[in-house]
Write a structure and sequence with these properties.
Two copies of one chain form a homodimer. Chain A folds into three domains: about 260 residues, BirA Bifunctional Protein, domain 2 (2-Layer Sandwich); about 90 residues, Rossmann fold; about 70 residues, Translation Initiation Factor IF3. Helix content of chain A is about 35%, strand content about 25%. Chain A has an eleven-stranded mixed sheet, sandwiched between helices. A five-stranded mixed sheet of chain A has the order 16-15-17-18-19, sandwiched between helices. A three-stranded antiparallel sheet of chain A has the order 4-6-5. The longest helix of chain A is centred in the C-terminal third of the chain and has 26 residues. At the A-B interface, strand 2, helix 2, strand 3, strand 4 and strand 5 of A face strand 2, helix 2, strand 3, strand 4 and strand 5 of B.
């Protein structure tokens, strides 16, 4: 672990954006580069990403998905084949025009997403229903030439996985769309300790080219919402222009039904903004690169001996453990690992040893307890499990407190200007009313939940007959 | 696993290049795309790559390297900072000139390799010797706009890892350069079952911008050599123009000493060309996506019962096992998994069950044996271990048979036109003589081995005083 300077960071209640940037810098997560809008994912952030990858990848493989790798370049003509898709992605594509000294005959987009490449591939490998389904995923980076950027939340290049599947029937593809959304939901709740809303995006907010988009929405500490993962159902919208056909069970030629789904390094941003505090990151044990730090306070022989025995025992139990025996002051050491968000700290000094105990400190709530040396390993398990659950519950409580039911725009305005969060409100289904909502701090519809509540009969904007209950929120 | 058409492939002795392409296609390893020179890494090839990654990544982490992720774009001005480097890489760079509709102020190269980005990063994070060494690695794809391409061996985009480290002293950096070469050597010999030559590249063949390049060279079945991994020592050649400085232990300001090292998806090509035969791939057990296939011959209840019990037992022992109970003919099934190179096949039919045994067939040498059902698991371990070793020994024997000691160019010409391989010959150190050697089927120096033999006093080309013994060979 790199050395953290023991400086104070901005308070998150004073300036949330500045607090975020301070953490990104001081926990050594991302570093700006000479390419505007692109960052280095530093080792500590990348270790978080690797843990996310490893859990998600296992979940994907358990549901029979296979990894592969598509080229990063998309010929312009391929990107142009589906009209809505090109409209959504061409304006923010990075274009390769030259290979060495030669101008290319056709320019190439650096992939903003890979539906078009997958379709091109499908078309040449699918013959009959016996070849279906194909359940693919790839881990890669994608590029979108955004104007304003922020590390992890919106960068020109970011890391993600994109799942792409094709199926015999619409039903099967739609089941897949929902299955993958639920996998993300489980991952967010059980691993990232982040509660999420799930539902369908409105027409205006769906993915460019999809029949519909399902989405995961999470509320950050400052009440701003973050679209955290999405799962798209395409029907035959790509398979028709891309000519992805198969002979079905009735010997008829049909186009396949398609899905895609993705989650990105934005999840690192969510971890920071949901759990972090004024001392730095707070990482859920299941994702933390280091779950336990053993920090020695004064290094005599006995202290070092006990500390390294404990390190060994904890590692044997599978805990990602780090032992810091450096001669920095206790206060400095503690602050360092607090900044890094290590869930559990074990403090060992000569006085502790003399009394046969150590101190165990939780990062999530700061509680300290004195623990008999012989019971440290079993206590670590209990504490780490409890931290994981408590972090989720705390975030859930915050989300609930910041979820409001509204029936008029004045209410919404007051809330959004004081203590923003999710707004539950009725909607007539017209895009015009969505645009009106946007006038309030750029609010957007987050999703139409699968189980809608009946709040009133009328659209909160125009007063006409309501079609749906919608979650609204300011977004990153 | 995708379905393999049970077609004959070209014999490797008739047309090695065609044989290679046939395997790539029929084992579903790579698929051409509409971007010239870029391929889809299909799931089976990608699974091989994931196994390679997982072993190498562990070896890197055990030697204290950390993963991170650098942007894929390099501003032209950054690439231009080291003269030899730009000369080597700029002519084959893919250039991004537009973001969305806007022309970029400065064009960006899609990374052909990332020394320049790492230097830019180092310069801003290094202060004193206490910050050193930095031992980084990243897994990513890189782009080189090559004219003629072949799947895995030379594609415009390929997968690799690139390690980048900086150190206080030249000695330490040179130790690292050698350490990483040895890690690759271990990986090739113990995991890929591929024997390698190790040594130093000549000035002409070293990496653009390096002080020197160490390299791993392997001989393919057809006697052509493949540069299989490289490890570069840069000294201060980048750290001076990039201004990567630190305060040393004597309180003096110095530039860091640097290395980089890489291995790529070309290793998949090496696996094919070293081990494969006219029935398809032969994969070493330690890297094979599936180590054992259980193929049922006629599916009655007993057969299915025994087969799935065996599958369970083998999986419990950690073997990557696949059970194929489809109703394809035995011959078809066997050919399918032979094409995929699965090291061990277990055949189970009603007659076997009646006799309390199964048949176990090795992919590497085709040997079959009858094994008591109760001893299958222990026998599998013995066979897989033996396959791993035998494959290495067979490749080593081939390499030795094809390694020649020569003292005149006529000998070299005859060998290279009949049964090519590695040529050991003396060299005066002049580039002119290297170029003369190139006239024989494009031969190049492979490396100067760490322990040179004394073959004669004279350069094989010009007859002047020899400086080095060099391995020479035709290359991919």
């Amino acid at each position: 672990m790199a050395i953290v300077k023991n400086e104070k960071i901005t308070s998150r209640d004073d300036d949330f954006a500045k607090w975020y940037t301070d953490i990104v810098k001081q926990a050594h997560l991302a570093h700006y580069t000479s390419v505007k809008g692109c960052v280095v994912f530093e080792p500590y952030a990348f270790a978080i990403w690797e843990n996310m990858q490893s859990v998600l990848d296992k979940m994907f493989k358990e549901t029979r998905h296979e990894n592969l790798y598509m080229p990063m370049f998309i010929p312009e003509s391929l990107l142009l084949k589906e009209a809505e898709h090109v409209e959504g992605f061409a304006p923010e594509a990075a274009w390769v025009t030259h290979g060495g000294k030669n101008k290319l005959e056709e320019r190439l987009a650096v992939r903003p997403t890979s539906e078009t490449l997958f379709c091109d591939y499908y078309a040449s490998i699918i013959g009959s229903y016996r070849d279906l389904p194909k359940l693919y995923n790839q881990w890669c980076s994608v590029v979108r030439w955004e104007k304003s950027t922020r590390p992890f939340l919106r960068t020109r290049e970011f890391l993600w996985q994109e799942g792409h599947t094709i199926h015999e029937t619409a039903e099967e593809a739609q089941e897949e769309t929902l299955r993958m959304l639920n996998i993300y939901k489980t991952f967010f709740e059980k691993y990232l300790a982040i509660p999420v809303l799930v539902g369908k995006k409105t027409e205006k907010e769906k993915f460019a080219g999809a029949e519909y988009t399902l989405s995961l929405e999470a509320l950050m500490y400052d009440g701003v919402s973050l679209q955290s993962a999405t799962s798209h159902y395409f029907g035959q919208k790509f398979s028709i222009p891309f000519n992805v056909k198969f002979v079905d069970r009735n010997n008829k030629i049909q186009n396949v039904y398609q899905t895609s789904w993705g989650a990105s390094s934005r999840m690192i941003g969510a971890l920071i903004m949901v759990h972090g505090d004024d001392n730095g990151l707070i990482l859920p044990p299941k994702i933390a690169p280091k779950q336990i730090v053993i920090a020695t306070i004064r290094n005599d022989e006995k202290v070092l001996d006990v500390a390294s025995k404990l390190e060994k025992q904890l590692k044997e139990q599978g805990y990602r453990t780090i032992l810091d025996t450096s001669d920095k002051s206790a206060g400095f050491k503690f602050a360092e690992y607090e900044m890094k968000g290590v869930p559990l700290r074990i403090e060992i000094g000569p006085r502790d040893i003399a009394n046969g105990h150590v101190v165990m400190a939780r990062r999530d709530n700061g509680e300290k307890e004195i623990v008999d040396i012989d019971t440290v390993v079993e206590r670590a398990k209990i504490l780490l499990d409890d931290i994981q659950i408590s972090m989720y519950e705390k975030a859930l409580k915050h989300t609930k407190e910041r979820t409001y039911t509204c029936t008029n725009l004045d209410e919404v305005r007051v809330i959004m200007n004081t203590k923003p969060g999710f707004i539950k409100a009725m909607w007539c289904g017209d895009q015009e009313c969505e645009l009106k909502m946007k006038e309030i701090r750029g609010m957007k519809s987050r999703c139409i939940p699968f189980e809608e509540e009946h709040i009133s009969d009328h659209c909160i904007v125009c007063g006409k007959k309501a079609k749906h209950m919608v979650y609204w929120g300011i977004q990153y």
